[in-house]
Structure formats: structure tokens, C-alpha cells
Write a structure and sequence with these properties.
By secondary structure, the protein is mainly alpha-helical. It has one domain (3-365): Hydantoin permease (Orthogonal Bundle), CATH 1.10.4160. 78% of the residues lie in helices and 0% in strands. Helix 1 packs across helix 14 and helix 9 (199-207) crosses helix 12. It starts with 11 loop residues before the first helix and ends in a 6-residue tail after the last helix. The structure holds 4-fluoro-L-phenylalanine (PFF).
Length: 482
Amino acid sequence: MSSDNIWTHKGTFLLAAVGSAVGLGNLWRFPYLVGEHGGGAFLLVYALCVFAIGVPILIAEIMLGRNSRRCPIMGMRFLTRCHKTSRAWEIIGWLGGVSALLILSFYSVISGWAIHYLGEMLTGSLRGADAATLASDFASLISSPIKLTLYHTLFLVICAYIVARGVHRGLESGLRLLMPTLLVILLVVLFYAAAAGDMLAASDFLLSFSLSDLSLEGWLVALGQSFFTLSLGMGAIMAYGAYMPSETSLTLTAFTVALIDTLVAILAGLAIFALVFGAGLSPDEGPGLMFVSLPLAFTAMPSGALIGAIFFVLVLGAAVSSAISLIEPVAAYLVERFSLSRVTAVLVVVGVAWALGLATVASFNLWAEQSPFHDLFGRSAFEVLELTTHITLPFCGLLIALFAGWSLTQTESMKEMHTRAGWLSLWRFLVRFIAPTGVAFVFLRALPYVEGYWLPAIVAIVTVGAFAAYRTLGEHEGHHGG
Ligand code: PFF
């Protein structure tokens, strides 16, 4: 990779990783998951997953990217050669690339809904609307393939424009403008929610803690969410890591990304629930929380349409900064492997994601009841694609943890992390044992045919244990450094 593909500033990786991490996962998914899984106890479990499992894998993924200085697919090929490990590890790059395309395809359709609501808020067409009107507005949006396709296309065009302009003029400049603006908007919405909504009820709901709310299902959802929100297992972080200057601290950066991401999720949750409670609505509306309850809350409040418009700019900006990180790893592969121009590569990636996205569009209307996906998998295209989030991401994250934990030697990891020996040992322990076990558990639980919790738990522990024993034995025989 040419040296001009290094971020110009030390802090740009942080900006880019936060941009990738903060997205619909924080603003749309996190609040409704908290709502569905009982508030404060879920939050605690979620934070534990983010810091004990997510952060070690985040460090591992950045490390692989920076160590190889290549796109994820070529990077994994390079690393397997350097470390004389099986070429099968290349699957990390391939699986990441495929997941990125699939996720981009439906992420863009959902992000398109924010464009619709931004328009509704700006034109004031929902002013004074009641719950039934908002519900039917949402229903008419998702039942129109034309509207959905239009918004989906518009969203992808915006993202493609940014990525096609290159690492510096596109990604870096775009993120430098976008991220501070989003922070300001989040604060504006938060202050507004504190003034016009019911912040007390929101903080009570989000932060009050009851042990009996801690279900095992909640743990699993929390772990899955921590993966999605930190953008792990998709090559996005690895691709951005490849542009990270060598002297930037890995540990500090990874912690900061996780901290900001969690903080944004909590602040957005507080703002959203304050508005929802303030309008006397229920917090457990599921995915409709942002697109039905929240607009309803905005219509009922002073200057609600203006703040609503600002809020949907936030959603859109956060979604764009995440989606560009899904385009980058695959586009970078096409450039590195086939010497395509960046513009052509981006057009290919976005074109494929656009076409795949049509299946998600149709799953809300033309294919709502019957489709080839129903015939094959018994669920809609959107649900099938979303399932990839629950299967391929944890699986890829598991492989990343194992590869970084077991194939990189202590010296190499130290060279990348340049941290204290104690931290390095803690990271290696987490990435070798704890993260793989936790992730394997979630991964197996997510397989549709696995019932109950104990079976996946046992299989996860035994598999990781056997793998660890095998590798440790290998090390003693002098095959692998440790
Ligand atoms: N982290 C993003 C969110 O929370 O919305 C979603 C995402 C973006 C996942 C990029 C994965 C990724 F590579």
C-alpha cells in the first residue's frame, strides 16, 4: 500500500472508527433493545460485553490491519504467509467482505427511512398528527417499493461520493466535518429533550437496576449488539486500521472508541426516552420506536418539527459515517487486487449493495408474505440478511480473536501495542480465551436450530478449550511463538 494511504493525523483513525461505530446501532437499535430487555440491568451487561469482549477484539482487528497495511482480504493473505499459518485464515477477509456487502444492502434501506422522516419534519407535513396517522404514514412508506428504492439509492449515492473521493479527500475530510457536527446535534437534542421531555423518567428507566431483569437472553442480545455497534468482524476496522500511523496507541484508541460509542448510545437513549415518556408514550415499541413513537413525540412538542429535522440529520449522518466504512474494505480490495480505479471500485461495490438492497425493499411490500426467501429459509429477505449479523459477525470476530491471540507472537503483539507487559498479558488472555468463548456461545445460540442455552455454552467452551490445548501443545513443541 502506498504511504500516502496513511491517515494524515494521528487522531483520524479515532474519528473514523467512532464514525463507523456510531450509527443506527446506537440511535435506533440500542434504545429499543434496552426498552425490550428491561433497562439498567441490560445496560450493565452490555457495558461488560463491550469492554471485556468487544475491546480486546477491536484491538485485535486494528492490529491485523495495521500489521499488514493492506485491505482485509489481501492483508489476511499476507499475514498467513508471514506467520506460516494455514491459508484457511484468509476466510476472515472474505467473510468480512461478504458480510459488509450484505449489511450495507439493508443498512442503506433502513437509513433511507431517516431521509423520509427528515423530509416530513422539514415540510411540517406531520404537524399535529396523532398516533394513528403516524402509524399509517410509516406503513405507507414501507409498503411503497418506489419510495424505499428512491431513498435507498439516494443514501448509497451520498456514501459512494464520499468514498470515491479517496482516503484523504473523501473519508478524512468527510469525517472531519461530519463527526463534530453530529456531536453538536446530539447535545442540542439532549438539551431539548431535557427541557421538553421527561428526563427523570428516562434516566430512571435506563439507569435503574434490577437483578431480576437480567435474563440470559438479555446477555446474548447484549453481546450481539456490542459486536454490531463496534463494527467488529466485517473488515471495516481492519481496513481503517491499515491506514493508522504506527505510533498511535492501539489500546488507548480502542478504549476511547468503545467509551465514546457507549456514551453516545446512552445519551441518545436518554434523549429518545425523555421525549417518548414526555409525550406519554410507551418505551417498548421495538423497531418502531424511532420511526413512529419519536416523530409522534416531536409533533406534540414546541418547535418539535425543527428539532425532529435536526434529529434525523443526526441519524442520517451517523448512518453515512458507518456505511462508508462498509464500502471501504471491499472497494480497497478491488483497487489492490485488480488495480481498478477507486471510482470504478466504489461503483462496483455500491452497485452490488444496491441490487441486493432491492430484496430488502421488497421484503416490506411485494415479498412481505411470499418470496423465494420464504420458500428457502421460511423468513423474509430482510430477516435472512439481518440474520447474517447474528451469525457471520460473531464468527468472524471469533476467528480474528483466535488468529491475533494465537498466531501473532508476544513480541509482534508488543511491537504493535507498545504497552506495559501486564496489559499485553491481560489482552492476550482475553483474546485467547474469554472473547472466543463468549462469542462462540452467542454464535451457536444464534443458529436457528439450536434450542436452549446449555448446549451452545458447553460446545463453545469445549471447542475453545480444545483449540487452546492444541495450540499450547504446538507451542511447547516449538511450532509457534507465544
Ligand atoms: N456500528 C454500526 C452501527 O452501530 O450502526 C453498524 C456497522 C457499521 C456495523 C460498519 C459494521 C460495520 F462494519
